[in-house]
Amino acid sequence: MTGLSRAAQEVGGDFYDVLDLGQGRLGVAIGDAAGKGLPAALLMAATIGHLRSEAHREASPGRVLTRINHLLCGTIPAGLFVSLLYMVVDTTRGSCVFSSAGHIDPLVLGPGEGRAEFLPVSSLPLGFDPATRYREQKIALGPGHKIILYTDGIIEARNEARSFFGFTGLAGAAARLAGEQKGEALANGLCQEVQRFTAGREQEDDLTVVIIEAPEGGVPWRRILREQSNL
To answer: Cβ(206)–Cβ(191) under 8 Å?
Structure first.
C-alpha cells in the first residue's frame, strides 16, 4: 500500500487512510471533501473519524458508507459533501470488496505494460440523502495486479490550453510507468506526469493517489505487510 497527497493550499480536503482490521484484512479509503482550505479540512477530519469508528464495527464496505452518510446528513452545512471510496482488502484470499460514495472510478492495472481498465461506479456523495444505500463491487487480485485510487485533482489538472489531463492521460501514464516503477516511485511518477502536463501552472486542486499492489511471483502478502511501516 502506498499513499501520496499534495494539497493545493496549506490545508486541503483530500484524504486517504489505511486501517488494520485484523485477520489479514485491511481497510483502504480515499476521499475528497468539497471545497478547499480549512472548511474542507474540517469536513475531512469528521469523515475520517466516522470511518475509523464504523470500519471496526462493520465488515461490509457498503454498510460502512451507508452509516457514515447517515451520520453526516443533517450535521454539515448545505452545499458541502464528501466523495469517498472504501475498500476492504483480504490478503489471505487476494480479493477486494469496495463501495463508492460518489468517488471516481478506480483504475486496475494487470501485470505487464498496457493493461489498464477503469471500474465504473455510480452513486451519490456522502451528505446528500440520508436514505442512500451504497452498493458493493468485488475485485480479484492476481499476482502483479495494481489498483490505483485517486482524486479529481489528478484527472482535472489543466494545461495552458485548458485541456484536462483526464482519464486517458492517467491510464496512459499508469500503464507506461507501472512496468518500471512500484509503490512510492509509481505514485510520485504519476504526480510528476501531471506536473509535466500542466507545464508549471499553479496547482488548482489537491492531488492524491493510493496504490494497492498484489505481490508478484508468489511472494506472500504477509511479508509485504510487515514491511509497511504505516501499518
So the answer is: no
The 82-90 sheet, strands edge to edge: 14-22, 25-33, 82-90, 95-101, 137-140
d(CA 113, CA 34): 35
C-alpha cell belonging to residue 133: 444505500
Contacts of 174 (CB under 8 A, 6+ apart): 107, 109, 116, 148, 186, 190
Cα–Cα distances (Å) from 128 to 75, 124, 165, 185, 187, in that order, read 11, 7, 28, 37, 31
pLDDT in tens, 98-110: 999 999 999 998 8
**Is there a domain that residue 231 lies in?**
no
Give pLDDT tens digits for 99-158. Answer: 999 999 999 988 755 578 899 888 999 999 999 999 999 988 888 889 999 999 899 999
Report the b/e string of 105-122 with b at 16+ CB within 10 A.
bbbbbeeeeeebeeeebe
- Total domains in the chain come to 1
The domain containing residue 15 runs over which residues? 2-226
CATH code of 167's domain: 3.60.40.10
Task: Report how far residue 132's alpha carbon sits from residue 225's, in angstroms, rounded to the nearest whole number.
Answer: 34
- Global confidence as pTM: 0.87
Residue 87 lies in a domain: yes
- The reply to whether 13 falls in a domain is yes
